[in-house]
Design goal:
This protein is α/β, with parallel strands linked by helices and 386 residues long. Helices cover 44% and strands 15% of the residues. Helix 3 runs parallel beside helix 4. The strands form three sheets. A five-stranded parallel beta sheet has the order 2-1-3-4-5, with helices on both faces. The chain is globular. Helix 2 links the parallel strand 1 and strand 2.
Length: 386
């Protein structure tokens, strides 16, 4: 009744200044939380995972606010169209927070636009480190960065027995940063295992786009000659990455496959059965705790499917927004930062880590960072251990 009464009052006083109905920031209704889920064309599969996680959080919420999630961008691919959409959301005083999985160039520009508007922006599937380094108060890099992802899979490669690695990538900034992290992991484990002499891992060969079938065949011949036992394919575009992994599998069926991409579209999901056993680090690692298992059971009962990490991430973000909202959209980012040390979520320790800022990757045999690894099994990504 409170919300209905407020809206009726605004209508009755239409000829008078809307004092009390509109806040200083122009926000029309302080009782509404609107979360915008923003993507680019071709990310329909991932969007559906986030939507389900967020909707589950909203369904469990029993507080005083009316909370909604809306999707934008499934028909937008180019930079100009993406930025028009971002600017529209930034200018809308009734949008509470924006969750983005757009291209990293768009995210880099969007972070500034959102910061100028005082609007909280969560980047959930990667971002450029340079965006973080700008120090925007409203920008939350809410996934592992490129170096951590590369470092994580480098540790996995060593533990899985990889010793000579071949790398294929498309040359983007994010992929190159991943390869730096992978190399850092190799250096650290090689130094740590120097005394025990349990074996060394090295990057034996690398191929970068653009290349054609001839160059790819030549690279496969080089891998055979060098004794490459593991393929590392950190591709920015999931469909391209899956296609390269399929080609490697066809050329060398026994090759261990390591990669890193977000699924994006159903087209990528449909290709997973052809790269059975491929392993990748999770952008949003989830602690397989008793709390998570109980939550996963509730999710399965609601949706009839096992939750993927994106659903957990969406659930945690929706709850973070709700818990830190105080009636003014422009205060949300400050509240998130103020309460970051006490933040919690189904995923576990990663929640406060991402809000407070990731530390540099560090190899600690006694207390390793809690990365998570996902393996392709029966056409799905499932949790696995090194």
């Amino acid at each position: 009744m409170k919300r209905v009464f407020t809206l009726l009052l605004c209508v009755l006083l239409a000829a008078m200044p809307l004092v009390g109905c509109t806040g200083e920031s122009g926000q029309l209704d302080a009782d509404k939380i609107r979360i915008a889920l923003v993507c680019r064309e071709g990310m329909d599969y991932n969007v559906s995972r986030y939507q389900k996680g967020m909707e589950m959080a909203l369904g469990e919420y029993e507080g005083p606010y009316q909370v909604t999630v809306e999707t934008h961008g499934l028909d937008t691919m180019d930079f100009e169209g993406s930025m028009e959409m971002i600017e529209s959301l930034a200018d809308n005083p009734d949008i509470t927070a924006v969750v983005t999985m757009q291209d990293y160039e768009v995210i880099n520009a969007a972070a500034r636009v959102m910061n100028d508007s005082g609007k909280a922006l969560f980047a959930v599937q990667g971002y450029y480190d340079e965006t973080v380094q700008e120090g925007y108060n409203t920008f939350f890099p809410f996934s592992l960065n490129a170096e951590h992802l590369g470092y994580a899979i480098g540790l996995y490669a060593f533990e899985a027995g990889a010793r000579r690695v071949g790398c294929i990538h498309s040359g983007t900034e994010f992929e190159l940063d991943e390869i730096v992290g992978f190399g850092r992991a190799m250096t650290m484990v090689n130094q740590a295992d120097n005394e025990t002499d349990t074996g060394y891992i090295e990057l034996g060969s690398s191929l970068s786009e653009p290349f054609g079938s001839v160059e790819f065949s030549q690279e496969m011949a080089t891998w055979k000659a060098l004794g490459i036992d593991t393929a590392y394919v950190p591709y920015y575009r999931s469909l391209w990455g899956a296609d390269i992994l399929c080609a490697v599998r066809n050329a060398q069926p026994d090759m261990r496959l390591l990669t890193c991409f977000a699924l994006g579209s159903q087209a990528t999901v449909d290709m997973l059965e052809d790269i059975e056993g491929a392993v990748m680090p999770a952008f949003y690692p989830v602690d397989q705790s008793a709390e998570y298992k109980e939550w996963a059971k509730r999710y399965e009962e609601k949706y009839g499917e096992t939750p993927e990490n994106e659903a957990v991430q969406g659930y945690d973000i929706a709850n973070l927004v709700i818990e830190n909202y105080d009636g003014d959209n422009k205060r949300l980012a400050d509240n998130l930062r103020k309460n970051a040390g006490n933040a919690a979520g189904i995923a576990g320790n990663i929640v406060p880590d991402l809000l407070q800022g990731l530390s540099e990757p560090d190899y600690d045999v006694e207390n390793p960072y809690d990365y998570e690894y996902l393996m392709v099994k029966d056409g799905k990504l499932v949790h696995t251990e090194p």
